[in-house]
Design a protein that fits this description.
The protein folds into two domains: 144 residues, 3-Layer(aba) Sandwich (Leucine Aminopeptidase, subunit E, domain 1), CATH 3.40.220.10; 304 residues, Aminopeptidase (3-Layer(aba) Sandwich). It contains 14 helices and 20 strands. A hairpin with a 5-residue loop joins strand 12 and strand 13. Helix 3 packs parallel to helix 5, helix 5 runs antiparallel to helix 9 and helix 8 runs antiparallel to helix 10. The longest helix is centred in the middle third of the chain and has 22 residues. The two termini are 31 Å apart. The mean pLDDT is 97. The structure holds ligand BES, manganese (II) ion and zinc ion. Manganese (II) ion binds next to loops.
Amino acid sequence: MKPTIKKTDKINPNDNLIIIGSKKSDYSKFRFSKDETGYIKNCIKNKDKQISINRYKCWVYIILADEGKDKFQKLELIRKVAYKLHAAVKARKLKSVCVTDVAGNAGNVFAFAEGLALSNYQFLKYFKDAKKKESSLSEILIYCKKFPTKEADKLNILLEAVYCARNLVNEPLSFLSATQLAAEAKDLCTKAGCKVEIFEKKKIESLKMGGLLAVNRGSIDPPTFTIIEWKPANAKNKKPYILVGKGIVFDTGGLSLKPTPGSMDAMKSDMGGAAAVIGTMYSIAKAKLPVHIIGLIPATDNRPGQNAYAPQDIIKMHNGLHVEVLNTDAEGRMILADALSYAQQFKPILVIDLATLTGAATIATGQHGIVAMGTASEKIFSQLKKSGFAVYERIVELPVWDEYDEMIKSDVADIKNVGGREAGAITAGKFLQHFTKYPWIHLDIAGSAYLDEPGSYRGKAGTGAGVRLLFEFFEKI
Ligand code: BES
Ligand code: MN
Ligand code: ZN
């Protein structure tokens, strides 16, 4: 359950209390007893990072947050400590905790509440004893004068958005078909105030989205193409921003069936880009950010079927280019290409696509980074990178040098859908570039969208990667 974040203007004597401080802080204003004060001093001397005090009716925790090279790393360490503390909160079945910072630092309190709340996420839909398994924490009180009420609202919205994105990623194909993904996007984003339109197969055919239709050919379910728009009267931009999310609801590889053992095991998460776009659109609309923004989600599963598209097929795409398919497992770029081409008519100021696009991106950064590339200005890239550090969904930029185009030249068509063994994340991006005529950024979130092991506030399985990053980016822009 998502805990509710609430500001409070007093600490009640029986509140479970979490105090963020440092080893040099003065804790006397919290009226610790003599024994407690001695214990705290001792813990600090022992270089403990977390001090727990068990009172008759409540727990008091002191978090010593002294480390971190810069502002952003400090905040991340606080989120991480929050994850560690969450285990104690859960084990002790605490329902409510009150978070404060000795020095009144609102940023620290925000980061701690964020880390704690994100750690509380569970996906329990398919357990009969879900209620029993549910973690106890349902409320996080914020005691901090400098913490704006608006920030509490924002945090609630963001948490909601990340939870929704994680739920979508965690839903298997048996529930989340392309049609269901579109319905979920519509339900969620309409509630937040967006206009949502869903194109079904007939419409997709009439639009000649050859890439999306090709990937869908092996499927027994129809594809969808969803358009989510947030256009407030006070929008600061004349031309829209556009987000495009890869919505492969399951990726078997198609006829080029995924070859290595285990490589299909997490492929329900291949709509992580779509989940990020849905979550971001939800949060932007819910927070009423003054920005005109459109989300596009091409969706289908990718599987071998009697009519499946085959290697050496030549596919005519939405923008008229012909693509030689040499590996049906390079399907993400096929459906994204059509969406990127469709985006052109809106004359966007910037298009950002998010996709679990390549294993090569995972090889490059592991789970700790997002691979970015594109044609947007350096200024935009540096703003996005800064947002990356702020929320710790960090971005590393790869080049889109012309030379890489040689690798996706085809003997029989305009381009081919694979570029060989080297530079796999880049050639995938270069492929997409052929369908863009506007400032564009491609984010390959293959490494961070889904985690096999628990171990951080990002959760196990779906992480909701991209939502906090993009909200931060658009809020700052
Ligand atoms: N969805 C995969 C990429 C992926 C791999 C995401 C691992 C998350 C974890 C994508 O559709 C894919 O299969 N890419 C291929 C491309 C190749 C055939 C050129 C890959 O990366 O192996
Ligand atoms: Mn694939
Ligand atoms: Zn894929």
